Amino acid sequence: MLNSPTRLLLVDDHPVILEGLQRFLKAEPELSVAATAGCGVDALKRANPRHIDVVLMDINLPDGNGIETMRRIYERWPSSKVILMTGHKARYNEGEISSAGAWAFLSKDAELEEIVWTIQAVRRGNKCIDEKPEQVECTADKLSEREREVLTLIATGHTIRQIAEQLGLGQRTVETYRERLVKKLGVSSVAGMVGLVPQGLVLLVGIALAVGIVRLSRNHGLVQELHAVEGLAAS
User: Fold this and answer.
1) CATH number for 66
2) Do the Cβ atoms of 167 and 150 come closer than 8 Å?
3) Fewer CB atoms inside 10 A, N or C side of the chain?
4) Which helix (H) or strand (E) holds 155?
5) pLDDT value, residue 53
6) Of 30-39, 157-166, 183-192, where does the model show the most confidence?
């Protein structure tokens, strides 16, 4: 658990997006928007890690791309942590983004919860980006019973709050499980976990049955959702 709010520098050349991000992230008690910038030059001036813990930056900027700006930030402030964002994630190779030095790569369409979790994970020193997602492998013996329950609920779209209520855990505890799953499964994000299902990870249904589907079935039609996932994995 972090002892102080994560200080953010938000960088985007679209005022509406910048204002929206600022408004949503300011509402999170564990985050603090310390500064904003609309271009790479201003970002470089304001990224001093004495005042900023994480830089959240658009990959496209009016005075150059975000990757180049990120490299300049690292040249001046080597201890900085930069998360890149885009509205067109499918256009980019995540391995190349990782090699360029990004700590994470997020879609602007990501859920607020996913953005907040990624920011906090990066501040803790966890690199949240898939360098070689096609090589991900997972076996059931890597996971504890509780981790399997959390994974099942995450992959079927449940929020941290919903999982905490379902399993009788604190939200911070669920976040810890999620970070542990990211490391064990070799993925960088919740999206990476969900992406494992079509690759033959029948784990989701089988594990739910193994750990007690009666309990899990209380969560707003989860059984039906799991049957849908099972069909996906078998296709």
Assistant:
1) 3.40.50.2300
2) yes
3) C
4) helix 145-155
5) 96
6) 30-39
Q: Is residue 130 part of a domain?
A: no
Q: Could you tell me if 47 and 9 are in contact, meaning their C-beta atoms sit under 8 angstroms apart?
A: yes
Count of other CB atoms within 10 angstroms of residue 222:
20
* CATH number assigned to the domain comprising residue 149: 1.10.10.10
Are 147 and 180 in contact, with CB atoms under 8 Å apart? yes
Is 180:173 a contact under the CB 8 Å cutoff? no
Q: What is the DSSP letter of 128?
A: B
How far, in whole angstroms, is CA 53 from its chain's centroid? 17
Structure token digits, residue 76:
């001046």
Read off the tokens for 124: 């803790």
Question: Is the pTM here over 0.85, yes or no?
Answer: no
Q: Are 207 and 148 in contact (CB under 8 A)?
A: yes
Range of the domain at 18: 6-123
